[in-house]
Amino acid sequence: MYLKCRKIINLLYMDYSQKPDNELCQLLHEDDSKAFEIIYKRYFKYLYRYVNYSLGVKEDSEEIIHDLFLSLWQNRKKNLIGDLKVYLYVSTRNLINKNLRMKLNFSKYREFELFHKVLISNESEEISNSNDFNTRLNLILDSMSGKTAQVFRMSKIEEISVKKISDQLKISEKAVEYHITKSQKILRERFKDFYSEN
Hints:
The protein is mainly alpha-helical and 198 residues long. The chain has two domains: 2-103, Rna Polymerase Sigma Factor, Chain: A (Orthogonal Bundle); 106-197, Arc Repressor Mutant, subunit A (Orthogonal Bundle). It is 80% helix and 0% strand. The chain has ten helices and no strands. InterPro entries: RNA_pol_sigma-70-like (IPR039425), RNA_pol_sigma-70_dom (IPR014284), RNA_pol_sigma70_r2 (IPR007627), RNA_pol_sigma70_r4_t2 (IPR013249), RNA_pol_sigma_r2 (IPR013325), RNA_pol_sigma_r3/r4-like (IPR013324), WH-like_DNA-bd_sf (IPR036388). Residues 139-182 form the RNA polymerase sigma factor 70 region 4 type domain. Residues 40-101 form the RNA polymerase sigma-70 region domain. Belongs to the sigma-70 factor family. ECF subfamily.
């Protein structure tokens, strides 16, 4: 009797493992834990590699994968997933970004965020290494006049208002705005080179 039951269970498992992603998503939506198990087994290895390659920290990678699959199970009723692979990779990427935001110090994160503002481009996915960006940003700022770089850092990285910068540096608000405009123009031009290299 036991062997017969085991055989049936194995046949059911084999049947599930052959199902395409869209069927597994539908079964998951209907509370099927076996479908969830197959999705986990099918994607865990690839997603873990992707996270670990991005972060390089085993514990963080494991935590992100745990959070990803926990979220997938907890939201199974409300998520109508069209393309499972895309859904999992986009969700994973978002969790990686969240992890990086928490780990980077505030100033570094503001600089990374600034890249998107300065460049105003739809192709920001191509940025592969924020260290390259930070290095380039600092080199560009170092090449600017001291006052322009200082005003830019205060305004865009430290998020100090124009009025406060004016008071602290003892220059007019118009002068502050001039330095901000000048620095943004330089950064836009110089980051085009950085962008084409990546």
